[in-house]
Write a structure and sequence with these properties.
About 35% of the residues lie in helices and about 20% in strands. It is α/β, with parallel strands linked by helices. It has a single domain, classed as LigB-like (Protocatechuate 4,5-dioxygenase, Chain B). Strands 1, 2, 3, 4, 5, 6, 7, 8, 9, 10 and 11 form an eleven-stranded mixed beta sheet that branches. Helix 3 crosses helix 5 and helix 6 packs antiparallel against helix 7. It is globular, with a radius of gyration of 17 Å.
């Protein structure tokens, strides 16, 4: 009997059973429940979305109302932070599939190769993604919206503003030159482990320049004011790419903190959703 074909870089889920249930039918039911609470889908194609990546119990509703309202292309470029410190600064998962309980999404190898060719800082690297949860938790949402979605996951750990902005612009130009439409999805939580009111105030200050698509002021506000938003690097890249793709309209789709879920208001994490078209 011939051996079954295994795609070259299949990624096994790292946080199933922790950040979300490992029970396949329960997972899809939960995700569809969050998506069903969204406003009607936007008419304009979504160039850039930002959604949170905590455990679904805490952030699932904000992710659901954001991605449910988004008008995403069939191909999605995923930009997430690197929580583990592993791998390259701009790590691109090059091919294969990303598995989740009950299914998988295919990696768009053509787009991954195109991005790495057009922007030398982007490099094929699976190590950065192996234990990273920020993009994994987005995959069941994208699969529930459209099981034929293809993805290119990119894990970002480069700290410098100039490089982030240059890579973002380069990604935008590469996507503009690509023959198929691509949406960008940034995965980020907001303030970490501060009182509820502090989180609301800090996160409002961080979101304001993002809503104006001012990448430099966004980065400088988050870093300069010590706001513990984990996705500041990928969101800086995302804003710059979105501007290259003609972004004009922005909106916040939802905001909440973990304290509103578990009642612990003294030490919360903030979650925001945002759409750019």
């Amino acid at each position: 009997m011939p051996m079954p074909y295994v795609e070259s870089h299949d990624r096994q889920p790292a946080v199933a059973g922790q950040f979300y249930t490992a029970d396949a039918p329960a997972l899809m039911e939960e995700v569809r429940g969050y998506l069903s609470q969204a406003q009607p889908k936007n008419d304009a194609p979504t160039i850039l979305a930002m959604a949170p990546h905590a455990g679904y119990y805490y952030s699932g509703i904000i992710a659901g109302v954001t991605l449910g309202q988004a008008n995403l292309a069939p191909t999605v470029l995923l930009l997430g932070p690197n929580h583990t410190g592993l791998g390259k600064p701009f790590a691109v998962w090059p091919d294969g599939r990303w598995l989740f309980p009950g299914g998988h999404l295919k990696v768009d190898a053509e787009l991954a190769a195109h991005l790495c060719e057009k922007e030398p800082q982007l490099a094929p690297d699976t190590l950065a993604h192996q234990r990273e949860h920020s993009l994994e938790v987005m995959v069941p949402f994208l699969a529930a919206l459209n099981p034929e979605t293809t993805i290119v996951p990119v894990c970002i750990s480069h700290p410098g503003l100039d490089t982030l902005m240059a890579v973002g612009k380069s990604i935008g130009r590469a996507l503009r030159a690509f023959p198929r439409p691509v949406s960008i999805l940034v995965s980020s939580d907001m303030s970490h482990f501060v009182p509820h009111e502090v989180a609301r105030e800090q996160d409002s200050r961080a979101l304001e320049p993002a809503l104006h698509l001012d990448a430099a002021r966004f980065f400088e506000t988050v870093r300069g004011e010590g706001i513990s938003m984990c996705g500041v690097l990928p969101m800086t890249v995302g804003i710059c790419a979105a501007l290259e793709l003609g972004a004009q309209e922005t909106e916040v789709t939802g905001y909440a903190t973990s304290g509103q879920i578990n009642g612990e208001m003294r030490r919360v994490v903030g979650y925001a959703g945002m759409l750019v078209s």
